[in-house]
Structure of Farnesyl diphosphate synthase:
Amino acid sequence: MKPIEMELEKSLENCESSKVLEAMNYSLLAGGKRLRPLLLFETCKAYGVDTNIANPFACALEMIHTYSLIHDDLPAMDNDVLRRGRNTCHVEFDEATAILAGDALNTEAFYVMSQAICRDDQKIKCIEILANCAGVNGMILGQALDIESENKQISWNELERLHRNKTGKLFAAAFMMASVLADDKVHLPFWQEIGEKLGLAFQIQDDILDITKTSEELGKSNSDVENHKSTSVTLLGIEEANKILAKHFDEVVGMIESLEINSTDLIQLLMSIRTRQM
Amino acid sequence: MKPIEMELEKSLENCESSKVLEAMNYSLLAGGKRLRPLLLFETCKAYGVDTNIANPFACALEMIHTYSLIHDDLPAMDNDVLRRGRNTCHVEFDEATAILAGDALNTEAFYVMSQAICRDDQKIKCIEILANCAGVNGMILGQALDIESENKQISWNELERLHRNKTGKLFAAAFMMASVLADDKVHLPFWQEIGEKLGLAFQIQDDILDITKTSEELGKSNSDVENHKSTSVTLLGIEEANKILAKHFDEVVGMIESLEINSTDLIQLLMSIRTRQM
């Protein structure tokens, strides 16, 4: 079992039992790529920061990501029934429980950060960063733009802004929290740009995979077509989308290589994302 | 305008505009009793703590309370259409926007606390307290118990546990954060009990008001009867409910008077709650 899986399992161990807690664990421990924790861990390693220090922040990232998936899948949002190869939370439990499980994971993310073992000023900065990246100036702004874009033609610029917020901001938070734990505040804006760029590239990849793979291969349903959403493929065509994807990935790698950190493993992680098939 | 109203207005001023932000402001600035901020301010005053220091924590409390109301009103939860005399958030906007607005207020609560001007160790302790009181061991546990109690006979003990968590824990957070800001950690468990007791009393009052006042007088719909929920009145009868209400209020006042703080105004606030008609 990966270390992050053990940390996630432990993270809700001391909570009072309820149906909502069951639903939280159901969604949080459903596997998944654990990309955001991995980005945080590898960036910490590149800086020479002990990854044990990063554990609560990795859990917090995955909790925020998981809550956003639970709420995103709700009937009033994307109305998806399949996620990571199994029932979405509201299908397995019920809508009310899924709403509360998402809410509780959002809150719990901040609780686990308050329990970290680093310095208080580092904790506060990480809490500030994650709250900002996950909130109405970040991930939720992206979700809001996503909903507003349904049944509507949007421009490539608008789609880029959507992806930079919806996906990029949590990637950015992973990089930025590692930078804080390494006491490197100077590069926070630099890491933010890397994170947003990677998020954009990741979503272009998703759009391409969505039309080249089946739901079964991906382990999730593809609601974008049903919800009449613009994607990078419908807006740019698959060839141009692939070109822009390559450009952004190359820029991310170039930016990281320009830093004086030991980024070999981090770059390798990025390469595995670059070549992912699901 | 009350100081807390000004603080709440300012709290979302620097956010990027979106429909979700509109919905956040719509619900956050809808008036209401602002009880949790008032409890925090008066407890700070009783301890001699500058109330300016308390502002971000007061905003955070009200953000958490507001998000819980938005989600509680959703069709999948209590399905209420009227709140504080106007449309609930999902009626005024739409369900998806209401879900996101609630999510964003939950997240923003932790952002505003990270920006407070007190010491870092006090911020961290307040974040820990609010996350714990609002999460799956606190307010959300109460919500979960509330949902599970629909269409079902529950015992008075179960209803007490429900109210102590759903309402009491946020009251407790108000008292406990004031105690942290006053550097009085010794009395945290004492304040927690006061908060839970007050929450229980408050909910018994609500149950009594619900059957003695109209929706119009209360400014909100009464969904408890429609959702076949047990209330303190249906379980105990109105006479016994009134007796237990009086007992808990008296105990709260007695506990506060036993502390060596200047609690005159705090007690007066409690008296105004004791005699409320809505």
User: Anything to note?
Assistant: Strands of chain B lie at 82-83, 86-87. Residues 56 and 112 of chain B are 6 Å apart (CA to CA). DSSP finds 15 helices and two strands in chain B.
